[in-house]
C-alpha cells in the first residue's frame, strides 16, 4: 500500500489528528473524559437552542423545495436515470442513516417517555411518549441528511464536482483569489467533514457493539465483558471491510436489502401478536399530535419545553448525533440518488423512512406499554438501553430464536453503517472519486476500528458512566463546527440554485 503525501495531504492530516486523539483515548482515558465533560457543558449552554433552530429551518426549507417548481429538477442531467430500484435505494439510505439505533431504543425510549413525560399537554402519557419519540427520530433527523445529500449531489452531478464536502462551497472561489488560500479553506472544510464523520460513526458503532454485548450477556447469562465487546467490534469491522471491498452493488446494497427484510419481519412478528387496533390507533393519534405540535416542539416553546436538563440529555444529543452523521450519510445518499428528482429525494429521505420509524416505535412502544400494564408493578425491566429489547422478547414465543435474530440484525445494521462510512471516507481522501481505490477502503477500515476501540474504552473510563453517556458529551462538541458550516452551505446552495450561478471549476 503506497500513498503520495503531496497528493494525499487531506488523508494524512486527518489521520494525524485522529491518531493524536486516539493516543489520549488509549493512554489518558479518564483525563480525556473529564475534559470532554467540561467542554460539552459549555457548548450545550451556548449553542443548544441553535441546534433546535437549525433542525426546524432544514425541515421547512426541504418542504418548500419539494412543493416548489424546483422539485421537478433532477439530481443530474435530464437524461440521467436512477441506478438502483426504489426498494434498494430506500433500503440503502435507511440502513446507512438509521440502522441499529431503532433496535437500541425500540422499547427503552417510549417506556422512558411514558414514565417521565417530557411535556405536559392534554394528551395521554402514552401518546406523549410516542409523539416525543417521533420528534427525536423523525423529520428533523432525516432533514439533516436530505439537505446535505441534495446540496452535495447538486454540485457533484450538476456541476461535475468531486465527492468532497468542500464542493458545496465552490462558489466562494471568486472571493478568495489566492490558490494557496483556497487550498487551506477547502482543505479545512474537508478535514472537518472527515472528523465529524468519524466521531459520529464510531459513536454509533460503540453504542451498537455495546448493545450486542448486552444481548449476548443476557442470552448466555454470562458477562462477556470489555474483551468480548472488543471482539464483537473486530468481527463487525471485518464484515464491513468485506462488504465495502465488494462495492456498492455487490456488498452494501445486498446487506442493506437483507436488513430491511429482516426488520420488517421482526416488526410483523411483534405487530401480529399485539393489540393491532390499539397500535394502529396510537400510530395515527401520535402522528397527528406530532405534526400539529411540530413547530413548538422544534423550538421547545411554552408547554412544549421539557427543560434544559431534559434537552441536554436527549434532544441536543440527538440533534448532535444526526448532524455528526450528515456528512457521510448525506454524501452516501447523494451517491446513490443520481437521476432522481429533488421532490422524490425529499419524499424518499424525509418522509418514507420517518413514517417507517414511527410505526416501528409505535408497535414496540405500545406493546411494551401493554406488557407493563399487565404486570401491574413495573420494576424497571425496560430501563437499560442495551438490554431492554431482549427482555421485551421474553414475553413472546420463540424468544431464543428472536433474540439471536435481533443480534444478527444488529450486527448487520452496524456493518452497513460502517461500510457506508468507509466508502464515503475513501471517496473523500481518494481525490473525490465516486469509486475510491480499495487501498483507501482498507486503510479507513483499520483506522475506524482503532478509533472505535478507543471510544469503547472511553465509555468504560469510570464506573458511573457508559458508552452512551460518553457519546452524548463527545458528539455535542464534535458536531458543533460542522453545524455552523452547514448554515453557510445552505445559503450558498440556494443562492447558486436560484440564480443558476455557474460554479468555478476546481
Automatic annotation (TrEMBL):
It is found in: Cell membrane. InterPro entries: BCCT_transptr. One of its GO terms (molecular function) is transmembrane transporter activity. It is a multi-pass membrane protein. The chain crosses the membrane at residues 9-30, 50-67, 87-107, 134-158, 179-204, 224-248, 260-284, 316-333, 345-362, 401-429, 441-461, 473-494. GO terms for cellular component: plasma membrane. Pfam families: BCCT. The keyword Electron transport does not apply. Its main location: membrane. Keywords: Cell membrane, Membrane, Transmembrane, Transmembrane helix, Transport. Belongs to the BCCT transporter (TC 2.A.15) family. This is Glycine betaine transporter. It comes from Aquimarina spongiae.
Amino acid at each position: 500500500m503506497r500513498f503520495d503525501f503531496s497528493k494525499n495531504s487531506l488523508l494524512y492530516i486527518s489521520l494525524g489528528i485522529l491518531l493524536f486523539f486516539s493516543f489520549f483515548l488509549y493512554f489518558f482515558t479518564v483525563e480525556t473524559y473529564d475534559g470532554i465533560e467540561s467542554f460539552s457543558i459549555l457548548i450545550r449552554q451556548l449553542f443548544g437552542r441553535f441546534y433546535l433552530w437549525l433542525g426546524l429551518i432544514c425541515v421547512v426549507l426541504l418542504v418548500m423545495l419539494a412543493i416548489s417548481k424546483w422539485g421537478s429538477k433532477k439530481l443530474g442531467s435530464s437524461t440521467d436515470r436512477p441506478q438502483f430500484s426504489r426498494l434498494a435505494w430506500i433500503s440503502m439510505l435507511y440502513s446507512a442513516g438509521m440502522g441499529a439505533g431503532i433496535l437500541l431504543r425500540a422499547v427503552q425510549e417510549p417506556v422512558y417517555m411514558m414514565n417521565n413525560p417530557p411535556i405536559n399537554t392534554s394528551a395521554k402519557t402514552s401518546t406523549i411518549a410516542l409523539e416525543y419519540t417521533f420528534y427525536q427520530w423523525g423529520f428533523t433527523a432525516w432533514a439533516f441528511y436530505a439537505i446535505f445529500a441534495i446540496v452535495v449531489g447538486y454540485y457533484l452531478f450538476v456541476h461535475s464536482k468531486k465527492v468532497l464536502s468542500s464542493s458545496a462551497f465552490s462558489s466562494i472561489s471568486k472571493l478568495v483569489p489566492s490558490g494557496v488560500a483556497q487550498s487551506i479553506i477547502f482543505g479545512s472544510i474537508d478535514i472537518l467533514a472527515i472528523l465529524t464523520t468519524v466521531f459520529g460513526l464510531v459513536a454509533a458503532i460503540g453504542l451498537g457493539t455495546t448493545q450486542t454485548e448486552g444481548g449476548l450477556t443476557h442470552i448466555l447469562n454470562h458477562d462477556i465483558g470489555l474483551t468480548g465487546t472488543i471482539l464483537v467490534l473486530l468481527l463487525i469491522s471485518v464484515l464491513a471491510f468485506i462488504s465495502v471491498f465488494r462495492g456498492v452493488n455487490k456488498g452494501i446494497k445486498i446487506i442493506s436489502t437483507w436488513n430491511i427484510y429482516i426488520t420488517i419481519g421482526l416488526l410483523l412478528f411483534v405487530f401480529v401478536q399485539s393489540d393491532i387496533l390499539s397500535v394502529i390507533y396510537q400510530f395515527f393519534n401520535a402522528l397527528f399530535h406530532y405534526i400539529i405540535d411540530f413547530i413548538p416542539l422544534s423550538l421547545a416553546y411554552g408547554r412544549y419545553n421539557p427543560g434544559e436538563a431534559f434537552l441536554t440529555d436527549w434532544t441536543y444529543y440527538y440533534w448532535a448525533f444526526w448532524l455528526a452523521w450528515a456528512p457521510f450519510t448525506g454524501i452516501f445518499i447523494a451517491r446513490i440518488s443520481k437521476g432522481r428528482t429533488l421532490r422524490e429525494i425529499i419524499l424518499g429521505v424525509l418522509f418514507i423512512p420517518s413514517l417507517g420509524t414511527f410505526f416501528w416505535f409505535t408497535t414496540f412502544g405500545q406493546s411494551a406499554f401493554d406488557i407493563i400494564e399487565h404486570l401491574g408493578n413495573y420494576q424497571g425491566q425496560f430501563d437499560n438501553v442495551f438490554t431492554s429489547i431482549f427482555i421485551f422478547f421474553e414475553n413472546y414465543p420463540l424468544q431464543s430464536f428472536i433474540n439471536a435474530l435481533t443480534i444478527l440484525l444488529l450486527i448487520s445494521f452496524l456493518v452497513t453503517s460502517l461500510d457506508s462510512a468507509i466508502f464515503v471516507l475513501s471517496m473523500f481522501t481518494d481525490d473525490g472519486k465516486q469509486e475510491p481505490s480499495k487501498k483507501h477502503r482498507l486503510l479507513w477500515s483499520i483506522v475506524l476500528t482503532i478509533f472505535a476501540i478507543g471510544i469503547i474504552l472511553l465509555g468504560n473510563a469510570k464506573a458511573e458512566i457508559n458508552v452512551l453517556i460518553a457519546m452524548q458529551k463527545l458528539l455535542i462538541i464534535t458536531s458543533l463546527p460542522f453545524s455552523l458550516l452547514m448554515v453557510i452551505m445552505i445559503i450558498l446552495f440556494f443562492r447558486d440554485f436560484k440564480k443558476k450561478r455557474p460554479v468555478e471549476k476546481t
